[in-house]
Amino acid sequence: MATKATNGKVSNPSPGDLTDQIAVIRDDITALTQMMADMGKDKAGEAADAVRSQAADAQQRLSEHADTARQHAADMQGHANDFVRNQPATALGIAAGLGFLFGYLGSRR
Hints:
Elements: E1 3-4, E2 10-11, H1 15-86, H2 88-107
Antiparallel strand pairs: 1-2
Helix pairs in contact: 1-2
């Protein structure tokens, strides 16, 4: 029985020809599988790089916010020190009042 081959010629395929074609197809599938695995590894590497970049950006923003908070706390401490120096009696009264309040609330347990 004659069949049409892929190159346009009519031929009778032998079992050896079929075996060779199956081997070529198997090699192509192996190559495609390897290519897909490599693409997956590349995508995973790209995703890891993106995560590292975002983590570095977040760390930079956190550092900037921490510096801002540290500066704000230093400013508040300066204002409190100025208040105590300028109005020591008022500061002492506020401290005593807070001490009594916390003592009262703490003894109610």
